[in-house]
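Dear colleague,

Thank you for sharing your sequence with our group. We've completed the structure prediction you requested, and as agreed, I am returning the results in plain text so they can be pasted directly into your records. Please verify that the sequence below matches your submission; if there's any discrepancy, let me know and we will rerun it promptly.
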Amino acid sequence: MSVRLKVSSAVILLLALALGGAATSHAATITIVNGDGAGEGFNDATPVSPIGGNAGTTRGAQRLNVFNQAAAIWGGLLPSTVTIQVLAKFDSQFCTTNSAVLGSAGPRSTHSDFPGAEFLNMWYSQALANKLSGADQSVLEDISATFNSDVDNGTCLGSVNWYYGFDGNEGNHVELLPVVLHELGHGLGFLTFADVNSGQLLGGTPDIFSRFMLDKSIGLHWSEMSDAQRLLSRNNTGNLVWDGYATTFRASTFLSPRAEVEVLAPAFSAGIYTAPKALFGPALTTTGVTAEVVEIFDGTGGPDACQPILNGAALSGKIAFIDRGGCTYDFKVAAAQAFGAVGVIVVNNVTGAAFSMSGSNPSITIPAVMISKDEGDLIREDVNAGGTIVTLRQDATAVAGAHPDGQVLLYAPSLIEPGSSLSHFDVTATPDLLMEPNINDGLHDDVDLTLEAFEDMGWIPRLTAVAATDAAPRFRVASAPNPFRPSTVISLELPAAGATLVEVYDLQGRLVKRLVNGWLPAGRHAVTWDGTDATGRGAVAGVYFTRIAANGARAGQKLVKLN
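Please find the predicted C-alpha cells below.
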C-alpha cells in the first residue's frame, strides 16, 4: 500500500535568543503531549485487544503507545540535552476509498543566529536549534503533528484501518509506526521552509535543509539561488539532489541497482520503465528475464490473482501481468509461479509511483516488479492483443533513487504537489525510504538515510566531511559486515602515506576505542574492530561511528553492532 503523507507549514515566529551555550550531547528525550479532547484520538476509549507487541486495551492507548515507540526510536538515535516535545492529536482528514492524508507535522517555530548555530543567517527547526544551543528557543512545543482519525471509521480507505502493532505485520492495513516516524522526521527538520509556489525563502533567509538541496543542472544549492531559479528547480525531476556527504556516502551501499522493465515489442510501444523489485524472490540480473507478457484471468472484475487463475496454462514460460489489490503481493506471485510463469509484473491500482512490494514467501523463485498505473494502462492493450515482449532486469550502471553522480534524489515532480514536493526523497529509491512522500508496505521501524541527512544538518557529529567546506575526504573507507556480530573490518584506501587515526565513538560522541594512531603507507589497509571498548569489555549493541583522519582529510561511517 502506498498512501500520501503531507508536511505541515511551519509556524513563523520572531527569533528567540537562547541563554548559554551548547551542552554535552546525550540521547534525546522526546515526549508526546496529548492534544486531543475527551473521547477522541488518544482518549478514544473503544476497547481493543493487544496486538503485535502493543499492550494497550483501548484504541487511544494503542495510538499513544505507537507514538511513544516512535519517540523512543528517534530519541535513541539523536543526541540532545533539551527535551523535545511533540503536540500530537488525531482529527478527521482528507480521505477517499483509494487515498488519504495519513498525517502532517512540522516544527512549531524556526530560529537563526542563536548561540551554537553552525551557520549564521540560516533557519533551523526549533528542535535542532534547541539541540545546537543547549537551551529552549521557544516556550512552544517543538513539533506539531495531526493524524487522520478517519482511517479507523470503516469507510476511509475502504476496509483498511490503522495497524497499531510494533511487529510490522500489518497485512492489508496501514502500520502507524512508520507514519509517525516519518512525520516526526519532518518535525525534527527534514523539510525546507522555502515556498514551493513562489520559490521565495522564508523571510528572505535560507534554511539548513535548502543548504543541501543541489540542482545538478545549474550547480547551485537552493540557499544560493534566486527566486526565479528556485521556481525552475522545483520541477527538475532527476536533477534535484540532497548534497550532504554523509547521506551520499551511505547511499552508495544502501540503495540498490535500478530495476526496470524494457518493452521490446511491439516496436511502437518500446521503452524502458523504472520498476522497483519486490522485497521477496530472487534478485534481478543485468541479463534479466525476457518473455512474452500474459495478463492473468481469475474471473473477477480485475486481474488481481486473488481468486483461482483460470488461464494458468497460458502462463507457462511467460511473464504474468497482474493488478495490485485484493490480497498480498507474494500470494499473487506464488499463484503465477505455480502455473510456470517466469516473472511477474504487478500494476499499481492507484495513481502514483510504483514501489517495492512487501512479502516474505521463501518458496518464490521468480522475479517480480511493480510498474505505475499510468504505465500499466499504457501497455495493457498491447498485452491483451498478444505479442508484447519485455525484459525484467537491473541496470548495474544506475542506482535506484540516486543521481549518476551518487547523490540521493529529492522529490521534484513535474507537477507541483504542495506538502510533498521538495521536502522528501524521490519515489524511485529502492529500497523504499522513510522520507518518501508515500508510506509504502516495506517500511517498518528503520529510519534509513534520514539519520545521515540529520547528520549532514548537524544533529549528530559530522564525521564524514570537513564541515567548513563540505569537501569530500581524499581517501575511501568502507566497513563489512555492517551491521555486524561480533566484529567488523574497516577497509581504508590511502592515496598517500601519512599519519592516520582510526577511532570508534558511540552515539553520544564518547571515544569507545582507538584502533590506529600512527603512520600508514599508501594503499589498502584492513582494520578490525572486535566490538570491544578500550578496556577490552564488549561494547553494548547499538549505533557507533568511526572517525578516520589521514593527510588532513576526515571520513567516517556509521556502524551497527548487533546482540
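Summary note from our side: Residues 59-77 form the longest helix (19 residues).

Kind regards,
the structure core
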